[in-house]
Amino acid sequence: MTNPWSRTTATDTAIGRRPAPAPWCLSPWHVLWLCLLLGCAQLAWAAPVAGVVVRLSGPLLAKKANGAVKILALKSEVENGDTLVTEKNTYAMVKVIDNSEITLRPGSTMTIENFSFAAERPEGDAATFNLVKGGLRSVTGLLGKRSKEKFEMKTPAATIGIRGTTFIAEFVAPPDGAAPALPSGAQPARPPGLYVQVLDGMIFVANGAGGAAFNAGQFGYVPGITRPPQLLPANPGIQFTPPVKFNSPIGPGDSGPGSAAPNSVDCEVR
User: Fold this and answer.
1) Distance between CA 125 and CA 143 in Å, rounded?
2) At 49, is the pLDDT very low, low, confident or very high (cuts 50, 70, 90)?
3) Which of 24, 45, 192, 260 could cysteine-pair with 264, CB 3.0–4.6 Å?
4) pLDDT digits over 140-189, tens only?
5) CA distances in angstroms from 187 to 143, 181, 183, 219, listed in the order given
6) Are 99 and 123 in contact (CB under 8 A)?
7) SS3 of 189, please?
8) CA–CA distance, 131 with 170 (Å, rounded to integer)
């Protein structure tokens, strides 16, 4: 059987017309341009940087939105969509791009859902975090001072809003299965729920059952998503005590406590 494409090509050649290339053929230049376009698209799709790790006392992981897991070091960047996970002995401080600070305590998991800040564009401010488990200390930055209504710290029991604030939040998860027997003399575990302590300013804690404001020096508790926040008369057992070296000032040329070699890099596991 005669190839119709060959017949058309022969006819074009006979009448002096340049034959059209096969529609499925790509020249090397087309391949090069496609590669460049795909590379630019990947850069455009990269998540915005939300902050930098500035203090670290142990292993810190970042679970990326694409499923990759990265081991972070001092000076590592964290991005929107990252879920940060601290190991059992790790305190980690992230300096966010508006100069706010979030310090995770050991055994904590927090997702940076969306953080956006530009000095010349206050209308674009956004700050949404999700404390999945464990605890943290949050210090308000520039966004919290000019757009405090756009800050949200979500937890499984309630959402925390700020009013120019330094606060501590701890979420105690319900136990899995039967509660283990306590050693002799040990203090019983606190009931599950969200515990808050305000060190400066004020926070507003709310869920579907109600809301309450807590001022500096006060403690609060939310038993669960169906129970309203309540004021506590004293510290219910909130402890936030990073190592002494972790809280020491970082001098010139010092990478900070718990630093590795100066040229250490992040390690990504897929």
Assistant:
1) 7
2) very high
3) 260
4) 999 999 999 999 999 999 999 998 899 999 999 988 754 444 444 445 58
5) 40, 11, 9, 20
6) no
7) coil
8) 9
- Residue 188 φ then ψ, to 5°: -65, 150
**pLDDT tens column, 186-230:** 455 899 999 999 999 999 999 999 999 999 999 999 999 999 999
Tokens describing residue 228: 């309203």
Ramachandran quadrant class, 256 (left: phi over 0; alpha: psi -120 to 50; beta: rest): left
Give buried/exposed letters for 133-145 (b at 16+ CB in 10 A, else e).
ebbbbbbbbbbbe
Q: Which has the closest alpha carbon to 268: 70, 61, 65, 67?
A: 70
CA 268/CA 69 separation, integer angstroms:
6
What Rg value do the Cα atoms of the chain yield, rounded? 27
Joined together, the tokens standing for residue 24 give 């499925």
Q: What angle is formed at CA 99 by the lines to CA 98 and CA 102, rounded to 5 degrees?
A: 105
* Residue 203 CB-density burial (10 A; 0-12 exposed, 13-18 middle, 19+ buried): buried
